[in-house]
Specification:
The protein is α+β, with helices and mostly antiparallel strands. The chain folds into 2 domains: 185 residues, Rossmann fold; 141 residues, Tumour Suppressor Smad4 (Sandwich). 18% of the residues lie in helices and 31% in strands. The longest helix has 17 residues. It is globular. Belongs to the NAD kinase family. One of its GO terms (molecular function) is NADH kinase activity.
Length: 423
Amino acid sequence: MNILYCFEACQRGRVISIVPRLARRSLQTAEYPSTLFKETSKFVKIKPVRDLKLSNAPDYISSPNSKLHALLWPGSLQNVLVTKKPWSCATKDAMITFINHLHTTYPEINVILQPDVAEEVYQDFLTTANNDPNRPHMLYSGTTDEITSKADLLVTLGGDGTILHGVSMFKSQVPPVLAFSLGTLGFLLPFDFKEHKEIFNKVLNSRAKCLHRTRLECHVIKKNDGESSVIHAMNDIFLHRGSSPHLTNLDIFVDGEFLTRTIADGVVFSSPTGSTAYSLSAGGSIVSPLIPSILLTPICPRSLSFRPLILPHSSHIKIRVCSKMNEKTGNNSVNISVDGVAQNDLEVGDEIHIVNEVGTIYIDGTQVPPSKKLADETLPNSTSKQRAGIYCIAKSENDWIKGINDLLGFNSGFRFTRRKQDN
């Protein structure tokens, strides 16, 4: 019989574990068809996340003397969802360190991991909590819907992409986000991982401040079946021609009024948070996350008068895929990606509706996306709308200013290097 061994190396240059896969027992159920729950380790046990209590949403208290919101837990913080940049030794080591700290210092805290993350880090726990043989590390995992219904706090270890991935799991209310910088980009990452003990203690004891960032809702309505699906975007929604040699043709309406027909490589709709992403590369403005707005930035338009726009956050934007005049509708699909993740292509006649997650004003006669109308009817009160968007744990009032200076080198002077004279 052949035995498959699993090798895992870390950046310190040594092998963490060499474990025969056939020696691992696993529990595979109908509810978790792709998740393996290992039972052999004396250091770790993985339990179903459905056993935990439902999430405990905090309150966000605004102050006239601060741009930030105070984070206040009406109850106790119980369930922490930790996510990481995949298959990175640095983030794996950081996750092990962070979970060890939580289980040692705050034994009442429950740690939740996505199934693939749990499987990746499972064998790297080399001790029990507090070195107590009767206290293995308890990790909870399950389906995405189960995880999002239980998480009180989202902790990310990686770069901006890790935050986007973690936030995308939540279809409605997002828990506060505590992000540690362990990646390549860091517009959303105010904290170094070395500060994790101090910062988590502040969050736990309601002494942290949050910056409120808005999300966009993208409602996709297919012409053929009329069904509407909803995708949330923290950064941007990008419509483009993909591999097609032809420019895209899109009719754009704002609050029911026809704005323009886009003839370009594509167009980006971004939140203020996403203004430093693709929109910036395409010539869009840099917008503070405190300015409620939606950015419309064309990508290589045919007309030189088609310039970037900054629209009110209350705008309802409708985009309809169309074709050139006197042209058949074949081969006119448009690619769409949301926060860098490709979605199903759009065809001629398909529509997308872009609105802010909170604060949209629908003018009389404006078509409200069916899924949006249904979602609004299910909101219990204004508190849900108040908690819409993303509250990111902030380091100071000026994190954004420091970001554009340190990361973008905003308005940096020219660098002149004198050439050496030839001998």
